[in-house]
Amino acid sequence: MADMRDLIENFPEQISAAVTDMQNKDAGLHKEVSSGFSPNGVLILGMGGSGIGGAIASDILSHDSTIPVVANSDYLIPGWVSQSTLVLACSYSGNTEETIEAVTSSHERGAKIAVITSGGLLGALAEKHNWPFVSMPGGQPPRSQFGRSFVGLAWTLKQFGCFSEKMYSELEATSTSTADAFGSVCEQAESIADLVVGKSILLYSDTGVGSIATRWRQQLNENSKLLVNTQMFPEMNHNELVGWDSGNESDVVLIIRTPEDHKRTQFRMNVCSEIFREFGADVVVIDAEGENQMQRLMYLIQLGDVLSLLLAERAGIDPVDITNIERLKAELSTLK
C-alpha cells in the first residue's frame, strides 16, 4: 500500500490511467443500450470513499437530467427501484456489506445492474450474474481512489445515456488541469491549514455542490482524524444560522463557492460571512478554479485532499489509519 501523500500527489495520473482504461474497455455496456434498455431512474449505491462519486454525480446531473439520479448510502433501497431502474453498485473492496445487501435487493427487483469494483464479493456477483462492470486495481484506501472510481462511474453512466459526451470529455481533460494546478493547490492548502489548526471547522456550500463539502468532511474525518460540521445553503439559513449565537473565536468557517451557485445563495453567503465574523469566527472563502464545471470540481477535490493530508502531517498522525472503522467491522462480523 502506497502512503497517502503519494496517492494524493498522483491524483492527476490516476485520472489519466482511468481514462486510458475506459478507452481500452470493450463495448459490453453498449449492448445494454442497443438492446433497448432506457432507464427511468438511476440509483448509485456506495458508502464512504466508494460512495462519494455517486453523490457528486447526482449533484452534477440533478438539474439537467430528465430522470432522477439518486445516490444511496444504506442497506435499504427506495421503493421505486424496479426493472426500469439502472443501479450502479460502487464498492472499491467489493465487500462493503451495505452495498452488497442493497445490490442484492436491486437484483431481486429485476433492476439493470452495473458494477464498479476491484473485486471481492461484488466482483464475484457481477461474474455470476453477468453484470457489466468496471474493474479497478485493488489494495489502496477507497478514499484515495476517487479519480479511478469517478471516471469509471461517469463512463458507465455515459454508456446508458445518463452522462453527456461533452461532460465526459471535460472530465477526461482534468488529468491535465489538476496537474497544472497542483502547485497552487498546495499553496492554498497550506494557507487554509494555518487558519484551521486547533479550531472547530464548519464547512458550508451551496446545495448544488453539497457532495464536495461532504468529500472535504470525509477526508478531514479519515485522513486528519477531525470532527467537522457540514451544512448547505440555503437550508442552514433556516436553522443553523440561529445556532451561531453560540459561535466564537474557536470556530473557523470554510465556504466553498462555485460559479454555478444560485445567485441568491451567493448573496446569502456574503451576509452570513459578516455574521460569522461578528461572533469572532475566521471565515475562509474558497473559490473553485477552472474553465468549466468539471475542472472546478476536480480542483476542489484535490484541494480538500491536500488540506486533509497537511493537517494529518502537522498533527503527526497516520492518514491511512482507520482503527475505529476496523474495530466496528470486527464487531459486526460477530453479528448473526
Q: What oligomerization state is this entry in? A: single chain
Order of helices and strands: HHHEHEEHEHEHHHEHEHEHEHH
| Number of distinct helices | 14
Radius of gyration: 20 Å
Helix content: 40-55%
Structural class: alpha/beta
Biggest sheet overview: 5 strands, parallel
> Which CATH class of the largest domain?
Alpha Beta
Total E-strand runs: 9
Portion in strands: 15-25%
Report the CATH superfamily of the largest domain: Glucose-6-phosphate isomerase like protein, domain 1
Q: Termini, distance in Å?
A: 32 Å
Weakly predicted, low-confidence segments: none
Count of structural domains? 2
Net shape? globular
**Chain-averaged pLDDT:** 95
CATH topology name of the largest domain: Rossmann fold
Strand order of the largest sheet: 2-1-3-4-5
Question: CATH architecture of the largest domain, please?
Answer: 3-Layer(aba) Sandwich
Describe this structure in words.
The protein has helices at residues 4-9, 11-24, 28-34, 48-61, 97-108, 120-129, 146-159, 165-172, 174-196, 210-222, 240-243, 263-278, 293-315, 323-332, and strands at 41-45, 69-72, 85-91, 112-117, 133-135, 200-206, 228-233, 251-257, 282-287. The protein is of the alpha/beta class and 336 residues long. Helix 10 links the parallel strand 6 (200-206) and strand 7 (228-233). The chain folds into two domains: 4-172, Rossmann fold; 182-315, Rossmann fold (3-Layer(aba) Sandwich). A five-stranded parallel β-sheet has the order 2-1-3-4-5, sandwiched between helices. Strands 7-6-8-9 form a four-stranded parallel β-sheet, with helices on both faces. The protein contains 14 helices and nine strands. The relative contact order is 0.13. It starts with a helix and ends with a helix.
